[in-house]
């Protein structure tokens, strides 16, 4: 690993927790150069909802490349893009009664967020934005301005302005009515709150600690935005593409955001790709007003098309994801019941699940112990207090049982030490 330490920037992070050289991957497992197999409950931070190298995607991808299909296309018309758009409309949008225009920004979640924020300001003519406590939306300057984590914000090196944080669901442990503060300052001409262009929200805060918003809270936010003439942006970069069960994480609340950002698992194969979904009346971009050299990643369009056809033409995956999520929650509750040395509780929704530890450093210690048994897990939350599970949705029950057993053993070791 000398070459990495000698040449790669100090900014590297995940490799510090998992100091091995990985070589191959299949399904829910990675293999290092020494032939050791690791169970992957990290899932590319949510970019591998369908596992590593799924055959149903690899075959059409290879066929596309071997026939010299276009790889780089900016925003030119290509057959791969056209096939994706048609499939996305037929499989995802129409069955849900949703009508959105599709923007291809740069192929990252942060760029999708930047696009959404810029468009909201253009539509409304306002500069101010509303974000929520413990939110995470990306590492570029606009996305950081609506992100909560102080360490990440500190890396900007300049003041991050034009955004005001509001309390996310249950921030006050139920001691304050939903949106009491938000609506009060909106209506108070003496509050000094600038009239906002948009609200940006995650239905489950991933990096913020797997904090799920209640259905009624999301519905209340939608209603408030409608009444006050504020655009609602749902950041579905990590929780979309089936992570919480349905394809869009906001479906459970029966709401329709004005703008939606999608990335991570939209390609299905881990290839860079992002979408911004825009209600037709708000598609007010001028040609090239937001662009990027790699917004036309055609191999990603190919795998995305086959992902939708293979997993989203019925509700089988959605039901399996919800079932597996309940299985994980049940196992986590048993782990908590079996280890009374520190306060813990479960968090999350669907197959985005975690255990929050009240003891300092416990989550990181558990993740470290799990890695010793060749299980990959990350931590989340403002103080890395949450052990975070983002296993591929296609992880088998046997693999789930194996990983959950390792987590149980790791918690027992850490709590008992």
UniProtKB/TrEMBL annotation:
Superkingdom per UniProt: Bacteria
Its EC number(s): 2.6.1.76
PROSITE patterns given in the database record: AA_TRANSFER_CLASS_3
Cofactor(s) it depends on: pyridoxal 5'-phosphate
CDD domains with a match to the protein in the record: OAT_like (cd00610)
UniProt pathway: Amine and polyamine biosynthesis; ectoine biosynthesis; L-ectoine from L-aspartate 4-semialdehyde: step 1/3
GO BP: ectoine biosynthetic process
Keyword Transcription regulation: no
Keywords for this protein: Aminotransferase, Pyridoxal phosphate, Transferase
Xref: PANTHER family: DIAMINOBUTYRATE--2-OXOGLUTARATE AMINOTRANSFERASE, DIAMINOBUTYRATE--2-OXOGLUTARATE TRANSAMINASE
Protein family: Belongs to the class-III pyridoxal-phosphate-dependent aminotransferase family.
Protein's UniProt name: Diaminobutyrate--2-oxoglutarate transaminase
Native organism taxonomy: Bacteria, Bacillati, Actinomycetota, Actinomycetes, Pseudonocardiales
């Amino acid at each position: 690993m000398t070459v990495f330490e000698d040449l790669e920037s100090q900014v590297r992070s995940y490799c510090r927790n998992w100091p091995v050289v990985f070589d191959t991957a299949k399904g829910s497992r990675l293999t290092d150069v020494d032939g050791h197999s690791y169970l992957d409950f990290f899932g590319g931070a949510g970019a591998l909802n369908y596992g590593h190298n799924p055959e149903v995607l690899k075959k059409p991808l290879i066929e596309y490349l071997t026939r010299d299909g276009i790889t780089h296309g900016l925003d030119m018309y290509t057959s791969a893009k056209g096939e994706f758009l048609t499939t996305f409309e037929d499989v995802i949008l129409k069955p849900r009664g949703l009508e959105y225009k599709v923007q291809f920004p740069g192929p990252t979640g942060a760029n999708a967020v930047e696009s959404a924020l810029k468009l909201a300001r253009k539509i409304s003519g306002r500069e101010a934005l509303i974000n929520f406590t413990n939110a995470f939306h990306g590492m570029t300057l606009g996305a950081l301005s609506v992100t909560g984590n102080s360490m990440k914000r500190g890396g900007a090196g300049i003041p991050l302005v034009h955004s005001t944080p509001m309390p996310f669901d249950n921030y006050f442990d139920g001691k304050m009515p939903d949106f009491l503060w938000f609506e009060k300052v909106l209506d108070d001409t003496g509050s000094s709150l600038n009239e906002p262009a948009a609200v940006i929200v995650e239905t489950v805060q991933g990096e913020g600690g797997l904090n799920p918003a209640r259905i009624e809270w999301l519905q209340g936010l939608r209603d408030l935005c409608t009444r006050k003439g504020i655009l609602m942006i749902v950041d579905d970069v990590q929780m979309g593409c089936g992570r919480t069960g349905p394809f869009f994480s906001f479906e459970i609340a029966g709401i329709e955001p004005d703008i939606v950002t999608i990335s991570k698992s939209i390609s299905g194969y881990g290839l860079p790709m992002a979408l911004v979904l825009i209600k037709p009346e708000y598609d007010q971009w001028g040609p090239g007003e937001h662009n990027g050299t790699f917004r036309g990643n055609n191999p990603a369009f190919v795998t995305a098309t086959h992902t939708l056809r293979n997993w989203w033409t019925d509700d089988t995956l959605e039901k399996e994801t919800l079932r597996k999520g309940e299985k994980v929650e049940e196992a986590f509750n048993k782990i908590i019941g079996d280890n009374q040395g520190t306060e813990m509780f479960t968090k999350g929704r669907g197959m985005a699940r975690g255990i929050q530890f009240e003891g300092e450093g416990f989550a990181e210690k558990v993740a470290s112990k799990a890695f010793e048994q060749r299980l990959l897990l990350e931590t989340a939350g403002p103080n890395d207090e949450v052990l975070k599970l983002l296993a591929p949705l296609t992880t088998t029950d046997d693999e789930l049982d194996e990983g959950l057993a390792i987590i149980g053993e790791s918690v027992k070791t850490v709590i008992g030490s």
